[in-house]
Amino acid sequence: MAGCGLVKAYGGVRFMVNVVAEMAGSVWQVVSAEGQAVTEGDELLILESMKMEIPVLATCSGVVRSLPVAEGEAVAEGHVLAIIEP
User: What is the pTM of this model?
Assistant: First the structure.
């Protein structure tokens, strides 16, 4: 799985998928919420870069476990925008 981070939990191992910014910009709108079930391709948030709105989509189906960004926040390429538990 591309963009996966490994998280250890209570002696077991589970995978979380990190959704990252493909370019620098600012978070224009957060569309999803923590705890929300998403399907691959669902819109999670919208970035603004060079006066363009760029949708950020779920790279896998699962539950959004974290949205470590806020509207208006500047992000760099590679910045983690969402974490999904498949």
Answer: 0.83
CB 44 within 8 A of CB 38: yes
For residue 27, the enclosing domain spans: 4-85
Please count the other Cβ atoms lying within 10 Å of the Cβ belonging to residue 6: 8
Q: What is the CATH number of the domain that holds 60?
A: 2.40.50.100
- In the block, which residue shows the tokens 């998403």? 38
Which tokens is 40 given? 């691959």
Number of domains in the chain: 1
Tell how strand 12-20 and strand 80-85 pair up. antiparallel
Residue 67 and residue 64: Cα distance in Å, rounded?
Answer: 7
86 residues of the chain, pLDDT tens digit each: 343 444 445 456 678 999 999 999 999 999 999 999 999 999 999 999 999 999 999 999 999 999 999 999 999 999 999 999 98
CA 73 to chain CA centroid, nearest Å: 14
